[in-house]
Amino acid sequence: MTKLEIKGDWNITKGKLKQKWAKLTDDDLKYVEGKDNELFGRIQKATGETLEAIRNAVKKACS
Q1: In terms of Cα–Cα distance, which of 2, 20, 5 is closest to 59?
Q2: Residues 61, 24: contact at Cβ < 8 Å?
Q3: 27-58 pLDDT tens trace
Q4: In this model, does residue 1 exceed pLDDT 50?
Q5: Distance (Å, rounded) from C-alpha 31 to C-alpha 13?
Q6: Rounded to an integer, what distance in angstroms lies between the CA atom of residue 62 and that of residue 20?
Q7: DSSP secondary structure string, 3-44?
Q8: 3-class DSSP state for residue 54?
């Protein structure tokens, strides 16, 4: 998989997460490889959801 394909997949995932939680901004959803916990923390802070709910939503959005 190329970097362009990965970026395209992440853009789709971001869109799905924004549909679920309209409060999220592009800054909340900046993804840096290896910084998953930071990403989940930003989403949790913005939405007030549990970490488990966020992980499940991201997993669902990626599939």
Answers
A1: 20
A2: no
A3: 888 877 778 888 889 999 999 999 999 988 88
A4: no
A5: 11
A6: 13
A7: HHHHHHHHHHHHHHHHHH-TT--TTTT---TT-HHHHHHHHH
A8: helix
Using a cut of 0.85, tell me whether the model's pTM lies above it: no
E strand or H helix that includes residue 57: helix 51-62
Give the pair of three-digit tokens for residue 37.
């916990």
Q: How many of the other CB atoms lie within 10 Å of CB of 13?
A: 19
Measured CA to CA, the distance from residue 52 to residue 58 in angstroms comes to 10
Q: Is the pLDDT of residue 2 over 70?
A: no
**Residue 11: per-residue pLDDT:** 84
Whether the CB-CB separation of 18 and 29 falls below 8 Å is answered with yes
The radius of gyration of the chain from alpha carbons, rounded to an integer in Å, stands at 11
Which residue's entry shows tokens 């930071």?
38
